[in-house]
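May I ask for whichever protein you like with its backbone structure tokens?
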Amino acid sequence: MLTKAIRELYITNLAVKKNEKALVFTDTLLPDEDITEEDNKRRKALVVVARQVADVGMEICGHMSFLTYPSLRTHGSEPPKEIWAAAFGSEVVKELEGIGILEDLIGKKEIDEVLKRTIHSIIRENKADAVDVVIALSNFSTSHTKFRDEKRTNNLAACLGGAEKVFITAPNGTDIAIGIKGRKALPDTGNLTLPGSFGNLPAGEVFVAPVEGTTEGVLVLEWAPTFKLASPVTVKIENGLVKSVSGNDPYAKKLEAKLNENPDFRNVAELGIGTNDKAKRADNILESEKILGTIHIAFGDNSTFGGKVRTPFHQDFVIFNPTVKILKEKEEKIILKQGKLLAF
């Protein structure tokens, strides 16, 4: 079953050709990581799965590289220099180091337009050294192999297009308003076959970067990214930033400590709506955020999909049974009612 799912990833999602080069990588546990026992087991098993992804890929691709590196502890961090060299070639890394920009790239610091053009030029000049496909393993699910309903996702993205505000409520007390005027709602269909495509699997969501400074309200968390909380955690949001985190569950203090590391970590970075009716697992964030009828809110970085905040952190949180209303062309419209997607 797993081998079949992995083959589908290469053939259906990525359309990898026999003469192409691929890189598979994952991170490994640090001895002192503060995670649950269940997460510990999952992370150790993930290395085995990543190795299997590489092994199956060797049968399909012309060339395969498999690398691991010690955990960087933070979701949304760029991988270390060794991974960049494997992906783009050692000459690219050497030249980026030579102009003093590699460290800024890995640290997700702001890059001006002049430097961006220089970076693109270096990569283009050495494109023969780069791999064609990069697969990073942080979670693994097989539901994407059964998800082929692109129509629902594309229609929802079109509906959100041109909207000015989104209002979200849920039975657990969540009540937030998000400004998205001028921001593009992007469909994640699992089709990663075109050059430059990127995404995560399983597929099945529409996501948008909120306009910075516009999100207001209360987000009530019942799930951490990989486990159910013993009691709800309340996140208060003002002017697009997390103002406070409270709750009796130990995760409240853990999340607050992480957000305190960098002011940009508090940025409300993403609104997503799940469209995958095959996704079921609530304890795997890459799958749970795709569950049909859910919404998710992320904090931190959104620089790769239309936002203005570039920072080495991005963490999603899923809300179940939400009601979502949009304001578009001076009219309000409910598109999701208590977890039921309407007319898509």
The chain has nine helices and 16 strands. Residues 2-137 form one domain. Residues 159 and 335 are 9 Å apart (CA to CA).
